[in-house]
Write a structure and sequence with these properties.
206 residues; Arc Repressor Mutant, subunit A; 69% helix; mainly alpha
Length: 206
């Protein structure tokens, strides 16, 4: 299964068909609570032929993967661009609310055959947001490599934590309480990083 990026240069009719198929896939998965939705049902809901589904996506898993990533790009990422240093909890709450709002869809995908690909794709989408927050918090106290590594660690760990909550959490999900738990973990992690011994600055060669 190949992960692709949005293609703004596509023909308008192609973009409309892709958007209709992804919207239909999300609606049907959310309604039925399973990713095992027949392609013929998705095609019918999108008012296109099965041939069009295969032309655009190839198979159901790729369609569902792209639908999940497109949902996050459209409804989540635009709300995470605030550079204010006072916004970490609000950003975290925005992420958590997004997954809670679309729980049936994400839970179905994260327990289905495209779970790994979706998890990797969501991590890649959110990695720049994590890196931005770490750079704001630490400034130049971390090397670029250490900042990249910490951002990857936070993105991967946060993804696993949120996935467990979405899949196994009690109904109804409580975004505020979960965000508090997430921020507590981040405080512990950031405090631990702050206590790490600093490497001595390299001395200039004589």
């Amino acid at each position: 299964m190949e992960l692709s990026s949005p293609e703004p240069g596509l023909d308008r009719r192609v973009r409309r068909s892709r958007a209709a198929l992804m919207a239909a896939a999300i609606a049907l998965v959310e309604e039925r609570g399973t990713s095992a939705v027949a392609l013929s049902d998705i095609a019918e809901a999108a008012d296109v032929s099965r041939k069009v589904v295969y032309q655009h996506f190839g198979d159901r898993d790729t369609l569902l993967l792209e639908a999940g990533l497109d949902l996050a790009r459209r409804e989540l990422l635009p709300h995470l661009g605030d550079r204010s240093p006072a916004a970490p909890r609000e950003k975290a709450l925005t992420v958590v609310r997004h997954f809670a709002e679309h729980r049936p869809f994400y839970r179905a995908l994260l327990t289905g055959s495209c779970a790994f690909a979706l998890d990797r794709g969501l991590i890649r989408l959110l990695l720049p947001v994590n890196l931005q927050g770490i750079q704001q918090f630490y400034g130049d106290r971390l090397s670029p490599q250490a900042a990249d590594d910490l951002a990857a660690f936070v993105a991967g760990g946060g993804s696993a934590f949120i996935t467990t909550w979405v899949v196994e959490g009690d109904d109804p999900l409580d975004p505020e309480a979960f965000t508090d738990r997430l921020m507590d973990l981040m405080s512990v992690l950031m405090g631990a990083v702050d206590r790490l011994p600093r490497k001595p600055e390299p001395k200039d060669a004589p």
